Amino acid sequence: MNVRTLAAASVLALAAGLLQPVAAQAATFVSFTPRTILAPGLPTEEEGGGVDQNVTPVGTISLTMTASQTAYVVAKMRVNNATIRSLFDNEVVCSGPGGWTENMVIGQNVYDRTSGSPNQDVTLYTRFLVHPGVAGTVTCTANVRGNSLSNDDATYDLVSGYLQFADTSVVNDALGEPVQSGVSAGVYGMNATHREVRLPALDYFTMPAGVTNLNVVADSVLMICYPSTSCDKYGSSQVKFTLFINQWRSDGTLCKTDSSVQITHDVPYWVHHKYVPLNKPDFAVSDAPGCIPRFNAYVKAEWLGGQLAGIQGTATDLVDSRGSSGTHDSHMSHAFVLPS
């Protein structure tokens, strides 16, 4: 697996605007039943080491789509009451016609219930676009993935959540494709000598005539003390995140830019993976002379100090189920656009 306090204001922003469906049409929805989740202990060296990860399906939705259709999927999960600090992943696995698949996972460690930390109650959103490009039925399943971060088994509670096709008619770009991009596998490090990473990023894209607003979403997973590095386990890392959105003129010069959405996190080593959602729901498309509906966007992550940090890309070789020999990949840090 790859990367993992939102302030109250950030949580409110997330709930109030950042995840609101855009012109939702007959969305398919399932609410999760509260339950206790097993988080298996880490195998000892005598047992072979590694990770024994449990995968708990908690809800499934389906949607019949046309070849040109794009839908917006959102999964919300809240967990707490962990007996031992454990990994908590909110994963959505989708499949469709012709062997098409699209998977997304967002993760963060949940602290044990006696820690007194705000990180003992964690809410994660996994959200992305699906576009099979072939007519047929798309089925998406939400999984809680997790394991204890000690050799002993742990449990934590899935308190609430849902899985939803929040919009079933997302506007595509001028080429008929959704505007979405993930970060390829790996951890993209930041430190005193390499202080900045511009990921996730949306390369240049053009929207069709009539689009007047862009809702730009960028979700990052920040890792503290990435693998094969020396770190102070009692330290933290300070990283500033800024979402940049640019519109361009026909002559290639900048028409409009926005960098108003930003947040700085001081993340302890023991959190290890920090969910960092950014959202600009109201980037108005300019029609000033020379401006055209051509855009790009990216997150600038700036290392300010402390321990090494990195942006996590696609998680590779995740087990399909506990003990399974079957594996799959899931995108992590990613960005997309909901135009209107």
Quick structural summary:
The chain has 340 residues and is mostly beta strands.
Features of the shown structure:
single chain; 340 residues; mainly beta; Jelly Rolls; six-stranded antiparallel β-sheet; five-stranded antiparallel β-sheet; 1 helix; 21 strands; 3% helix
Provide a descriptive summary of the structure in words.
The chain has 340 residues and is mainly β. It folds into 2 domains: 23-169, Jelly Rolls; 174-340, Jelly Rolls (Sandwich), CATH 2.60.120.660. 3% of the residues lie in helices and 56% in strands. The chain is built from 1 helix and 21 strands. The chain has one helix spanning 8-18; strands at residues 29-31, 35-39, 54-65, 71-80, 86-95, 101-110, 122-130, 136-148, 154-167, 180-182, 187-190, 196-206, 213-224, 236-249, 254-268, 273-284, 291-306, 309-312, 315-319, 327-330, 334-339. Strands 10, 11, 13, 16, 18 and 21 form a 6-stranded antiparallel β-sheet that branches. Strands 1, 2, 4, 7 and 9 form a 5-stranded antiparallel β-sheet that branches. Strand 19 (315-319) and strand 20 (327-330) form a beta hairpin. 46% of the residues are buried. The model is unreliable at 1-27 (pLDDT under 50).
